[in-house]
Amino acid sequence: DAGVIQSPRHEVTEMGQEVTLRCKPISGHNSLFWYRQTMMRGLELLIYFNNNVPIDDSGMPEDRFSAKMPNASFSTLKIQPSEPRDSAVYFCASSFADVEQFFGPGTRLTVL
Amino acid sequence: TQLLEQSPQFLSIQEGENLTVYCNSSSVFSSLQWYRQEPGEGPVLLVTVVTGGEVKKLKRLTFQFGDARKDSSLHITAAQPGDTGLYLCAGGGGADGLTFGKGTHLIIQP
């Protein structure tokens, strides 16, 4: 089992550029979560999907952030335009029913 | 919004010592989870507690859920350098997103 796969692992971009983060959940899992982690705010839930449908996006900081899950094996988190305050580690996690959430290794985003 | 407060924020102790870290909330949680996160990796689940007063042991780690299901503690006996990491508590979960505390950064010095 490959676990949750995220790409890229590191992303450095300039302010104003579009950033796309990708996630492949564990096969068979029906829930997918996007989190953001910073020293100041800790780990925050941005959005989660159940059976590919967005259930709660109240954690998305603003309209510059968007997430999609076109199928059960792929999700993207897009930031457009990016700002320096978006710099953080972004985690994707997946789960099945009420069993534990499995986290990917994260994408470290730096916006200059 | 349900908040989880963890203490201490940072803890550095010598190998072989015992320690306890805490997770507190003013809200009741149906379940509470403890994760450990190592640098460059995502959090990994250690344990889930669901019943008020529940105690679970994982080798040298003992987890307790408060009777009112508002707080939890993690006790480590005879800490080892391999225990170093960020310990996070989280409420909720499953088909819903988790609410995380900010964590306790633990360093065990040889």
What does this structure look like?
The complex is a heterodimer of chains A (112) and B (110). Chain A has 112 residues and is mainly beta. Chain A has no helices and 11 strands. In chain A, strands 2, 4, 5, 6, 9, 10 and 11 form a 7-stranded mixed β-sheet that branches. A 4-stranded antiparallel β-sheet of chain A has the order 1-3-8-7, with no helix packed on it. Chain A is globular and about 40 Å long. Chain B has 110 residues and is mainly beta. In chain B, strands 2, 4, 5, 9, 10 and 11 form a 6-stranded mixed β-sheet that branches. The radius of gyration of chain B is 13 Å and the shape is globular. At the A-B interface, strand 4, strand 5, strand 9 and strand 10 of A face strand 5 and strand 10 of B.
Write the layout of secondary structure elements.
The complex is a heterodimer of chains A (112) and B (110).
Chain A: E1 5-7, E2 10-13, E3 19-24, E4 31-38, E5 42-50, E6 53-56, E7 65-71, E8 74-79, E9 88-95, E10 102-103, E11 107-111
Parallel strand pairs in A: 2-11
Antiparallel strand pairs in A: 1-3, 3-8, 4-5, 4-9, 5-6, 7-8, 9-10, 9-11
Chain B: E1 5-7, E2 10-14, E3 19-24, E4 32-37, E5 44-49, E6 55-58, E7 61-65, E8 71-76, E9 85-92, E10 98-100, E11 104-109
Parallel strand pairs in B: 2-11
Antiparallel strand pairs in B: 1-3, 3-8, 4-5, 4-9, 6-7, 7-8, 9-10, 9-11
